[in-house]
């Protein structure tokens, strides 16, 4: 009975997790509040110039939670824009977000 309970606990913990990551270009910007990070649909939708800081990823049971996780990682590295590289997509029991983390800067050429 104990083995079955432990097995069920491990299965439910692994089935749907929440997390994310950041892979940056080496800039050491100060963290910003997560509430300051704006989500943008694509790079084409950016109305102003920006500087790319890296790639923020998030995964969670819902698409919104995955976006929120990517925002957290972006904010930790000074990003004020989370620019979606692709729409959030489901992979197994989780949704995944892959986005460019950016901040205000000169216009891209």
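Q: What amino acid sequence fits the structure above?
A:
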């Amino acid at each position: 009975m104990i083995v079955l309970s432990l097995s069920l606990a491990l299965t439910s913990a692994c089935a749907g997790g929440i997390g994310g990551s950041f892979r940056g270009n080496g800039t050491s910007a100060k963290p910003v509040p997560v509430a300051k990070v704006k989500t943008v649909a694509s790079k084409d939708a950016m109305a102003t110039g920006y500087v790319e800081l890296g790639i923020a990823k998030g995964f969670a049971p819902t698409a919104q939670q995955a976006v929120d996780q990517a925002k957290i990682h972006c904010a930790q590295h000074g990003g004020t824009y989370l620019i979606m590289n692709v729409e959030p997509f489901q992979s197994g029991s989780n949704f995944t977000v892959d986005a460019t983390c950016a901040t205000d800067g000169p216009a891209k050429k």
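Q: And what stands out in the fold?
A: The first helix runs from residue 2 to 15.
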